[in-house]
Amino acid sequence: MYFFIEAMRESDIPRVQEIERQSFSTPWSAATYLRELRSPEYARYIVARASRTRVPLDTYPQAARRTWLNTLLPFRHATTAPASPYPVVGYGGIWLSVDEAHITTIASAPEVRGRGVGELLLNGLIDLALECGASFMTLEVRVSNQVAQNLYLKYGFEARGVRRRYYTDNNEDALIMWTGDLRSAEYQARLRQLRMALAERLKRQEQAEAEPQPAPPAPDAPSSPSTTQA
Q: Is 152 known to be catalytic?
């Protein structure tokens, strides 16, 4: 399976909500997503799509700025484009404020978890933040969500504080995490290494799935029933 990143389209909202209901206990309404998509001056959203083959770049023209995702994966920005034939398997978004980008949400569908889709989405959000002029990123994450925290730590987020009883479903605390300067030479070098590793991981997965699977062994021939002489 091949995964690629696009801007979220209005036609993606029902599928995004489906994944959200599978991921979070307090999902957003369709009206909220629609409002966010129609406010690009402060909010940007992306989706991860799946395809059994690589998507031709002439079908999905690259954005003017050649970010890492533009180079590795096709990407388009139009949120009102016609519905895509490629299914959504994850999504994420940011709010923009001066030189900061706040990750509002990020999730992948249960059937693709553990396959790098969440990490791919996080890279897409980092590129969006940089494109929009942000130098820092921040987010809240449940204190119990160690898997997500490990991913954020890997990409340079650090715990800076706690929001008490932040999550309304169970009053769980939220850990506040921030990056350093995304544009610093140190962070960019770290990002390049992580992205090379992610690209290699996705490539290996794609190649493994493309290899013909061995046919299952033929079942043993049934044995003849024994007979008894009278």
A: yes
How many angstroms separate the CA atoms of 224 and 214, rounded?
Answer: 29
CA–CA separation, 70 vs 155, rounded Å?
A: 19
Decide if 226 is inside a domain.
no
The residue among 104, 124, 120 whose CA lies nearest residue 20 is 104
Would you say residue 217 lies in a domain? no
Which CATH number covers residue 81? 3.40.630.30
**Active-site position among 2, 33, 45, 152:** 152
Into how many domains does the chain fold? 1
Q: Is 186 a catalytic residue?
A: no
199 lies in a domain?
A: yes
Query: Domain for residue 230, yes or no?
Result: no
Tell me the whole-structure pTM to 2 decimals: 0.84
Catalytic residue among 6, 36, 119, 140: 140
Length of the chain: 230
pLDDT in tens, the chain (230 residues): 899 999 999 999 999 999 999 999 999 999 999 999 999 999 999 999 999 887 755 444 443 334 445 444 444 455 667 788 999 999 999 999 999 999 999 999 999 999 999 999 999 999 999 999 999 999 999 999 999 999 999 999 999 999 999 999 899 999 999 999 999 999 999 999 999 999 999 999 988 887 766 666 666 544 444 433 33
Kind of pairing between the strands at 172-178 and 158-167: antiparallel
- Containing domain of residue 180, as a range? 2-210
